[in-house]
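Key idea: predict the complex, not the pieces.
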Amino acid sequence: MSKEPMTIDHCICNTMEEALRLVELTLDQTTDSVYWIDSNGGFVYVNPAACDTLGYSRDELLTMTVQDIDPNLPLDTWAKAWGELGEGRTLRRESCHRTKDGRSLPVELLVNRLEIDGREYNCFVVHEISGCNQGQKHVRGLNEEIELQVARRTSALLEEIEGRERIETALLDEKEKIQTILDNAGQGFLTFGPDLKIDLDCSEECRKLFDGEIWGRLFPELAFPNDDNQQEFLNSIFEDIFKNSDLGMHEIFLSLLPLEICINGKHVHAEYKEILPPGDSQERKLMVVLTDITETLQLRNQIEEERNLLRMVVKAVTSYNELVESARDYILFCQVQVSQILDSGKTTEDITYEIFRMIHTFKGMFSQLDFVYAVSRLHDLESQIRQLRAQPEKPTVDDIRKLMTTSGMEEWLEKDMRMLKDILGEKFFSREEVLDITPSQLADIEQIVMILLSPAENKQLLPKLRQLRYRSFKSLLRNYPEFIRCLSERLQKPVKPLVIEGDDITVDPDRYRDFTKSLVHVFRNMMDHGIESEVERAEAGKSEEGNIECRLRVEDSSIFLKISDDGNGIDVNRVREKAIEMGICNKGRAQGMSDDEIIELIFVDEMSTKDDTTDLSGRGIGLSAVKQELTRLGGQISIRTSPGEGTAYYFSLPIVDTANIPEVSPESVVRQVISRATELMRDEMELVVDDSKECKIVKTDKLMVEGIVVLINIKGSLSGMLVMTFEDKLAQCLVHRFAMDELTPEEAEEHISDAMAEIANIVLGNSLDVLPELSNWVTIATPTTIKAEGKHVLGFAGSDIWTSRIDTEKGYFTLSLLPSGNT
Amino acid sequence: MAKILIVDDSKMMRKNLKKILVQSGHEVVEEAATGMEACSAYDLHKPDLVTIDINMPEMNGIETVKRILESDPGALIVMISAHNEQSRVYQAIKAGAKNYIVKPVRADKVIFVVEQVLSQYG
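Result:
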């Protein structure tokens, strides 16, 4: 709107009427609402647009005030605003009109003031700003959106760029990684195309393998620098592969390429792969993967060698005799037999054949023993001989001789033998042939010797035999230090290493083994119950490591063994309780027993004071086993324990020399024999024996004999001779009674000596059965009989004779023992 | 089920090969011990496939390949070679053999190669 008020004068119209009509038309047509209000706010004029917009009819509106449609226009503030404005000015204001149907219309008011004939009028031009605002809003919105979109697109683009940059970096990283992998794979990767020139991108390993840069060089040249044939071969095959489009053939060609190449003295394994890039247009390439297997080969060879060595050693030990024999035979062959055969005068053909056969045999023998070197040399010699024989000009004996003497075959064993000696020791081969004898075989021999020989002879021989079988007592305990160490680890209780200290003595292991084995329960108990954990020991102010001692003392005829620990000690009260609990003794008795007596109870079966039976002990059987063994040996045990300080077991064992053959006095033997003889005469021969006086055994140095004399030799723990004499008339009687059938006088005469010998034999034999200690250790020889004519004196040099005489109703007999010296 | 001609100077080898081929259902129409025999046997029987030992006295395997292919360019030939004869095998293949088997012959390998050649070129 122009600032200057317009008057109708300014119109170009001809008449007032025309001008008015134009103005009316304008007002009628305009879409803006136009109305006039008077000073009271009442409507004096409204145009059609106003009516339409507000929804009222003209007539209605003309009765209303502006306040009816616009509560925001109170007259008082209006006047003020108006006053400020002044004449001819326009007031522009936003407000809100209310339509007839209650809608709110945001509007913009352009208000003018007019005075006509002293009357004040306000002219309102109203247009809705909703549409306009909306439009503007819309445009603004669109603008904003556009800007947003632009921003988004920009940031999206930036993101994309960033993303791509990241990918690029990642790719570069990956490439680096792959390159690193390839470089460090220990394998050389190289590629080449139809020109066979190696590409730039090859792995580090290639440079290492070939000792320098290889790109641009021709592969065949590189692989076989000194072998023109191979180069040509490779060239042809590669040409074929690159030219030929039949992929099937490629496989075949590739398979013909060499698998192993030698580069700078290194053994290299080669693998060939065809690389087919996507799309036919791109160049095909071949990739070669090279792996340095020099070390692998070396290792393989080394392993092979060691395995051979191992086999050889095992054979040497298990077939020792065979080895020694073979070695001996071979040396003999080399030094003696070859010349023998050569000089034998046989045909050359025969000689050659025989030598060949021998070599072949030795080859086989040493092959059995895994003598790798000797076998290979013998094999070569074999081939040489074979070649000689195959020649058109047959070899002469001298040719063969020359071959054999220059071969140096005696030394071929040395190499393998040296390896064996290095491992098994020099002494290994200086042994004679070795025999295996078991301890039981020795024990048998000992027994027999003791029976057959006199005590004097036994004294000489038995110790030597025993030396073979007996062991030191300490050696029977040799496993316990390791046992303690294992337990210490398992139970996590540190213990100082166990040392078996003190005296030692050679004993019969068979006799003591069960006892020393049972000691395992003692040691186990000590570790389990006795020695405390590290913590407990620290609390008790003890040394970190527990202490277990084992000490031997040998005195006179006893072995004293002390096994002790510095642990908890035996809790006597617990033992007492347990004993009561287990019903081993009742409460009353248990209370009454002294501590020592209580402690003894731990040897009773089923006793253990530990409540939870651990895997190791506490089953209550162990210690009773020890007691059992001890008793069997005739030994003793005593225990000393102190709570918190430790426990000590004292074992004493008698040394029983099983060489102690029971000694029996000759006197007792004679007495026994007499008793049996008397019995025989009385009961079986039915003779009356004069036993009125007690049988007197006399020691003499001379023996009077008459009648039939029977001599029986005794050997063993008792050595000597039994002499039994029969008065003739007694003998006569006995022979008839002894015989089963009736005897004629001639027959009696014939058999009388035999009969007496028999009787003496029986008597002696039976007596010895009664003396069990003797019966095992003594042998009785066949009797010798003498018919003494008249009386004779029997003297036994240097020894006493134990003799006795018994009378019977039919005559007397004597029994004498002539023991041989015990020296 | 193909008709096969075996060419090898070793009777043992021929026997082994024959056993393998027959056991897997093929027919051995002829065994030839030399290159010359091979050529005439080929003309006579017109087998589906020929196995030729590379190493033969007088006419060697490669020669034989060439001769047979002269008379029948479509002949299917498989070479039998001892180890380490790659360059000779290569020559044979250049001359027209289709594939090769390395001694000692194993049944599975022989059948694989033979049947592959038959199916690919037959």
